[in-house]
Task: inverse folding
């Protein structure tokens, strides 16, 4: 199902475990998708194709249907996918929700599922703090080089300062 075109009071949401997945997840990591989607109501979203401000819709689903849990799974490193995590955090913030279990995951290089915390999502929004982390821990850039083609090319071409 598509998140944007599903009624917030759809019976399938009530008391369910909802998986909000990036639309490309079944293509990028089919085995991981198959495993993580077991026994969940799966809804897809692609912020690159649609308005990424879906936190209102997610908040309405939570308030109207009271799911047991919400899990969001996206592709690590995608700037578009990141907004799904931020939207789930924002929905919980708006509602002050504590009754619904929440999980965030990213798929790294199409091979590995990694759970991330809501705090990691929050931190990623603050580039000034991220800058301090880069300055204090430049070794993380070596890790980035393993995953980001954009970073590798920028360094090879000297397009960054």
Result:
């Amino acid at each position: 199902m598509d998140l944007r075109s599903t009624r917030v009071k759809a019976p399938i949401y009530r008391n369910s475990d909802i998986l909000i997945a990036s639309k490309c997840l079944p293509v990028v990591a089919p085995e991981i998708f198959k495993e993580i989607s077991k026994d969940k109501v799966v809804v897809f979203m692609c912020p690159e194709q649609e308005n990424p401000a879906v936190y209102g819709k997610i908040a309405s689903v939570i308030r109207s249907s009271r799911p047991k849990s919400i899990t969001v799974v996206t592709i690590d490193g995608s700037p578009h996918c990141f907004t799904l995590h931020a939207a789930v955090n924002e929905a919980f913030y708006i509602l002050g929700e504590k009754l619904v279990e929440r999980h965030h995951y990213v798929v790294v290089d199409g091979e590995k599922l990694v759970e991330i915390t809501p705090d990691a999502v929050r931190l990623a929004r603050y580039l000034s703090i991220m800058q301090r982390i880069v300055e204090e821990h430049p070794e993380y850039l070596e890790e980035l080089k393993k995953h980001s083609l954009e970073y590798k090319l920028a360094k090879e071409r000297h397009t960054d300062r």
